[in-house]
Design goal:
215 residues; alpha+beta; single chain; 30% helix; 4-stranded antiparallel sheet
Length: 215
C-alpha cells in the first residue's frame, strides 16, 4: 500500500511527526509505505520528515504507540477519511443555513453569537509550547557519551522537560546525542539553553536544532 504524499506533506507543514512529539509506530507505518525519499522540491515537509524518521529505522520495533494514526495517509490518492466530529466553539455555526433574513432568523443568529462569545471568554489562556529535537555533538570518538548525556539532562529550569534520546553515528567512529525536549516558549530560550550546554566544554563541541514543532 502506497502513501498519499500530498496529504502527508500538508499534515507535516506544522508538525515533526504523524502524531505526538516523538517518533511512534504511526511514523514507522507511513515510512514503510513510501518506497523512496519524497522529492524535496515537490514535498518539502514530507522529505524532511522522511530523512528524520529514516535515522530511527533501527529503532522501529521499539517505538511506542500504534499505527492507527498513520492509516489516514495510506492508500495513495484514495478518498480522505471521514470528517472529524465538530469540536467546541471552533465548529459553531454562527449564521445558520436559513437564507431568509426575517426577524426570527436574526434573533437566532444573535443568540448563537452570544453563546459563542461566552465560550470564548471562558476559555483559559493557552500556554505556547514547542517540541524540539536537539543534536549534541562531542569532540571526538573518545568522549564519554554517557557522561555527556548526564550533563545535558542536568540542566533544569521551569518550562523545560527532557524526553527520549539516542546516539546517532556521524562518521569516523563518532556518535552524536539526539535528544527530544518540550519547552514553554515564554519561559525557555533555545539560544540560552544551547549556551548552557556549551559550558560543558569537556564533552560538548556544538549543538544544533534538528527539528522544532509548535504545539
Amino acid at each position: 500500500m502506497s502513501a498519499n504524499l500530498d496529504k502527508l506533506n500538508t499534515h507535516l507543514a506544522s508538525r515533526s511527526y504523524i502524531e505526538g512529539y516523538e517518533p511512534s509506530q504511526a511514523d514507522s507505518a507511513v515510512f514503510k509505505a513510501i518506497p523512496e525519499a519524497p522529492s524535496a522540491s515537490q514535498y518539502p515537509n514530507a522529505s524532511r520528515w522522511y530523512t528524520h524518521i529514516k535515522s530511527w529505522e533501527s529503532e522501529f520495533a521499539n517505538l511506542a504507540g500504534s499505527s492507527t494514526a498513520g492509516e489516514q495517509f495510506l492508500g495513495g490518492a484514495a478518498a480522505a477519511a471521514p470528517a472529524a466530529a465538530a469540536e467546541d466553539d471552533d465548529e459553531v455555526d454562527l449564521f445558520g443555513s436559513d437564507e431568509e433574513e426575517d426577524a426570527e432568523a436574526e434573533k437566532l443568529k444573535a443568540e448563537r453569537i452570544a453563546v459563542y462569545n461566552d465560550k470564548k471568554a471562558a476559555k483559559p489562556k493557552t500556554i505556547a509550547k514547542s517540541v524540539v529535537t536537539l543534536d549534541v555533538k562531542p569532540w571526538d570518538d573518545e568522549t564519554d557519551m554517557e557522561a555527556l548525556e548526564k550533563a545535558v539532562r542536568s540542566v533544569e529550569q521551569e518550562g523545560l522537560v527532557w524526553g527520549l534520546s539516542k546516539l546517532v553515528a556521524i562518521g569516523y567512529g563518532i556518535k552524536k546525542l539526539q535528544i527530544t525536549l518540550v519547552i514553554e516558549d515564554e519561559l525557555v530560550s533555545l539560544d540560552d539553553l544551547q549556551e548552557k550546554l556549551a559550558e560543558f566544554e569537556d564533552y560538548v563541541q556544538s549543538t544544533d536544532v534538528q527539528a522544532m514543532q509548535k504545539l
